[in-house]
């Protein structure tokens, strides 16, 4: 009987609380959305299953949970805690990114910068709600719509918030096709959405090779704290564009990025243990994250309209591409293309939108570097 009682007390049924079942339901919803609607399945399936793993109740002290020193999950979580996984993701992103649209039309950099407005406005809002500066910065970075950057900055400034920040960030990235269209349509007229832009010029191989070198030097002199993110991003890109390291580029953008994506999704999901995740603070983070994402989208659209005041009639920007200034590559660019074609089926905005889209990746990393260097206090 004693053995039976001990067995029962060690089961998940005996340890379970209603909070565990709430989080398990959240994980199942993530998996359902990913499979049923194909919203970022490569992210949401690992995250959703990670939530299930992280919310199986267990007796403390058995080195099972992700927060218990010596557990397997804790070792995997090391890559999140110490910010190892995000730079490796950036290496893969660089190896699969074509910067041609940005090189051919450098003023699109400004749209990527304008979309980072959401980060800093949300930071102020979080401060107003009583979050300390390090936590406010970690919440604000959600507006960049860049999951790896959000994890990187939060791991340095507020590691106890990695779970809610990462889940909020990746949730909104997955919901780009739902969240962005209403904002884009609200801030533009039908005539603006029908603007046809000049075809981008052809970019030479030399320009494609020079860009990652110059881009790395300029960006990292501006924000040295973003060195690991931007260094890996531009390294991946020069591996792709050089033409002599295709094997390395292929590995970076396929096998390696797939492995790291699985590990990030699994560990971020597992970090949402009910006793840690289900708090009023997490609800505030989700609300501020949505606000940040909306402001970032609107900031890009409005700045494109502002730029049009100074551009000639035959060189105006379609403001929809401003909404692609967030870092959700290439989903935001696809949204701009989709909305533009609803108004004019012959209007092809995808390549134009990729310019501010990849600029947003660089911009969010620079913003993270600036916040990191300003707020990091050591430790």
How helix-rich are the residues, as a percent range? over 70%
> What pattern of helices and strands is seen along the backbone?
HHHHHHHHHHHHHHHHHHHHH
Radius of gyration: 22 Å
Q: What's the number of helices? A: 21
Instruction: Indicate the low-confidence ranges by residue numbers.
Output: none
- Provide the β-strand percentage band: under 5%
Number of strands: 0
* Largest sheet geometry: none
Distance from first to last alpha carbon: 49 Å
Instruction: Report the principal-axis shape.
Output: globular
The mean pLDDT is: 91
- How many domains? The number is 1
Global structural class: mainly alpha
Supply the key terms.
mainly alpha; globular
Quick overview of this protein structure:
This protein has 379 residues and is mainly α. The protein has helices spanning 2-9, 12-15, 18-36, 41-54, 72-81, 85-96, 100-104, 108-114, 117-128, 133-140, 147-157, 162-174, 176-186, 190-193, 205-222, 227-241, 246-270, 274-277, 280-308, 331-343, 350-375.
Question: Overview of this structure, please?
Answer:
This protein is mostly helical. It has one domain (81-375). The chain contains 21 helices and no strands. Helix 9 runs antiparallel to helix 19 (280-308).
Could you outline the blueprint of secondary structure elements for this entry?
Elements: H1 2-9, H2 12-15, H3 18-36, H4 41-54, H5 72-81, H6 85-96, H7 100-104, H8 108-114, H9 117-128, H10 133-140, H11 147-157, H12 162-174, H13 176-186, H14 190-193, H15 205-222, H16 227-241, H17 246-270, H18 274-277, H19 280-308, H20 331-343, H21 350-375
Helix pairs in contact: 3-4, 4-12, 4-17, 5-17, 6-11, 6-16, 6-17, 8-19, 8-21, 9-10, 9-19, 10-11, 11-12, 11-21, 12-19, 13-19, 13-20, 15-16, 16-17, 20-21
